[in-house]
Design goal:
The protein is mostly helical. About 70% of the residues lie in helices and about 0% in strands.
Length: about 270
């Protein structure tokens, strides 16, 4: 018992001495960097955090903070990576490493994205962070990568809206379906899903007897995607009701769609 108490006391004294007299920041940084190079990401992250805590005003401390986030990310500890990187961007928003920190935040959410038939919370977070990265750091080496990932996130969100919209359309819940397809047309015009969304709007509006909106949706589809199979379907659907695509400047689609043309359209080629 006595030996155990003595040993415990020595360990406690040793820990206290270590806390009061930490290694120099340069040594701690080198050790953490070596751990990172060896793929010991969790140990590296903790060592970088120790440096930041023990020497908060040392030149190495600021870089240690962002490298702790990077180590957590590489180790697959995404919530810890986000928290650490977020702390960096809050404390040092205008520094050289701020773009890397924000890239880590965006990438962590991006890696957590799920398919279009699953919850899209992480996808929305990823999109918001990627857009912020592009806005704040347009000349950073991460900006081009952000462009590509923005396209992927928007395509995933549009696909999710289409999944739900088709479900409502199949159930003949036309208003609910229209609301989903409207989101695609209004927010995700550059995705591959916009063609089908305009066709589905034509279909849903025709089912409700709102023919002017059906004609307008088909007109937008035909002007922007004249060779689309979806336009052929929309045109045939209107023809079955004795109608044709027609622009209506007062329609929400006309107001929403970028550079909507003021012209009368013929049938698909």
């Amino acid at each position: 018992m006595g030996l155990s108490l003595i040993a415990a006391g020595c360990a406690s004294t040793s820990d206290a001495t270590s806390a009061l007299n930490p290694d120099p920041p340069s040594k701690m940084f080198a050790e953490a960097d070596a751990l990172l190079s060896k793929g010991k990401f969790d140990d590296a992250a903790k060592k970088f955090e120790d440096l930041d805590r023990d020497h908060p005003y040392a030149p190495e401390a600021r870089r240690a903070m962002v490298l702790a986030a990077f180590a957590y990310y590489k180790g697959g500890k995404l919530p810890e990576a986000v928290a650490s990187a977020r702390r960096y961007t809050t404390l040092h928003p205008g520094t050289k490493e701020a773009a890397l920190a924000h890239h880590i935040i965006a990438q962590s959410h991006f890696d957590e994205m799920r398919g279009p038939n699953r919850d899209q919370g992480e996808t929305r977070k990823a999109l918001a962070e990627l857009k912020t990265l592009k806005t704040r750091y347009p000349n950073s080496p991460y900006a081009k990568d952000a462009d590509n990932k923005i396209k992927i996130t928007e395509d995933t969100l549009a696909a999710a809206e289409m999944e739900v919209g088709r479900y409502y359309l199949k159930k003949k819940q036309y208003v609910a379906a229209i609301n989903r397809f409207k989101t695609v047309v209004a927010e995700y015009q550059t995705t591959a899903h916009v063609e089908e969304s305009l066709m589905r709007l034509t279909e849903a509006y025709m089912a409700l007897g709102i023919t002017n909106e059906a004609q307008n949706a088909a007109a937008v589809l035909g002007h922007n995607f004249p060779d689309s199979r979806w336009y052929k379907d929309a045109y045939a659907l209107l023809q079955s009701g004795g109608l044709a695509p027609r622009e209506d400047g007062g329609s929400w689609i006309a107001k929403t769609w970028k550079n909507f043309p003021k012209l009368t359209l013929g049938g698909p080629g």
